[in-house]
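Comment thread on ticket #2218

A.B. wrote:
> Attaching the input chain for the structure job we discussed in standup.
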Amino acid sequence: MESFSFYVGVIGNIISVLFFLSPLRTFWRIVKTGSTEEFESLPYICTLLNSSLWTYYGIIRPGSYLVATINSFGVVVELIYLSLFLVFAPPRMKAKTAVLIGILDVGFLVAAIVVTRLALEGDMRIDAIGFICAALNVVMYASPLSAMKAVLTTKSVEYMPFLLSLFMFLNGGIWSFYALLVQDWFLEVPNGIGLLLGIAQLLLYAIYGRSKPCNIISDDHDVQNAGQHEHLLPCSSPVQ
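C.D. wrote:
> Ran it. Output below, let me know if you need it in another format.
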């Protein structure tokens, strides 16, 4: 069973690598235009925090090195994304991004590690970090939910890229299966939600894939936000 779960985890790592690299087209556009335009940095900041915490979780939980390896890759990728954001963002966005990185990716991360190292031991420490990781993942599902709302509003999948939805489905499915094999419920819960959201998005594609955008939009702000997150990671770290 251990060898089988290992191979499932390896497949999950491969899918997660593709998932982490899915925003490359956005950053190629940013580099070409020399501007971040209306894209927001917050999803990347949160993904960096999430990947960092999952890396720590994978290190302290016995037998979870596959979780640590893929999320350490995610940390490197997100650092590159945020570096490009800091280079090409306008001054106001650059300052906002730097402050949020300092608060979340440095301050919160260091605090979580230090507190759990000093105040907790053994399984209690693992459970505390696992709970934080899972909770953060659940909160970050606002991004794909926003995209799905835009699809229902406009009757068009313009703001919800197919590959991102497909990878969300595959990623959630493989890691849910892996979590079930190794009996890790902190991995199971958020990835199970990701799997369900991936299925829901693919169903929306089946319904609205050939539809033209509706001219009547009830909430322009929501649609604009969905467009801004068009090529972002839909729900944080692939290994949720």
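A.B. wrote:
> Thanks. Noting for the ticket: The two ends are 22 Å apart (CA to CA).
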